[in-house]
Amino acid sequence: MAKRIGLLSDTHSHWDERYARHFAECDEIWHVGDIGTLEIADKLRAIAPLRAVYGNIDGTDIRREFPEIQRFKCEEVDVLMKHIGGYPGKYDRSIFHELMTNPPKLFISGHSHILKVMMDKRLGCLHINPGAAGVYGQQPVRTLIRFVIDGDAIKDLEIIELNE
Predict the structure, then answer these.
(1) Which of 63, 65, 86, 130 is the most buried (most CB within 10 A)?
(2) Under a CB-based contact definition with an 8 Å cutoff, are residues 144 and 130 in contact?
(3) Where are the beta strands (DSSP E) in the chain?
(4) Nearest alpha-carbon partner for 104 in 136, 135, 142, 74
(5) Residue 156: helix, strand or coil by DSSP?
(6) What does the pLDDT look like over 129-143, one tens digit per residue?
C-alpha cells in the first residue's frame, strides 16, 4: 500500500501550524535535521509517525533520540537520510563512501536551506533537499515537500511554499 510522506528540514525550533495542515494526510513525517527542540519533534509525532536525523545545531537531547544517519526501506525504496549530505556531484565527505559503495534509491539531506530535487544518474539515486521550514537562515522561501512512495516508485512530489 502506498505511503504518503511529509518531508521537512531545518525548523531550528520554529513551529508553524501549517506543518500540521499540510502533513495531516501523511502516513509518515521525515525530518532531516536541525530540529531545534524535542517539542518540535513531539508536535510532528502528534500528526503522524516521525523518522528523523539530528543536524549540526541539535543538542544532546535530540542526538540521544535520533541518529545522525537513518537508512531504511519504505515500501520497496531504499532510503538514506543525513542532515549534512551535499548533493549529486558534491556529496559531503562524511557520506560519500556510503553513497558510492551502496547507493540508495532515495537520498535525503538538509543543511543548505536550499530546496533541491535532482536525479543522480550515475548512482541511479533521487536526491531531495526539502530546503528550510523554519525562519532562521537566508532562504528566500520556506519550504516543505510531500510525496508518495508506492512499491518501488517515488511519485506525486509536491513542493509547498510557506510564504509569510
Answers:
(1) 130
(2) yes
(3) 3-8, 28-31, 50-52, 69-74, 77-82, 86-87, 90-91, 106-108, 115-120, 125-130, 143-150, 153-161
(4) 74
(5) strand
(6) 999 999 998 888 999
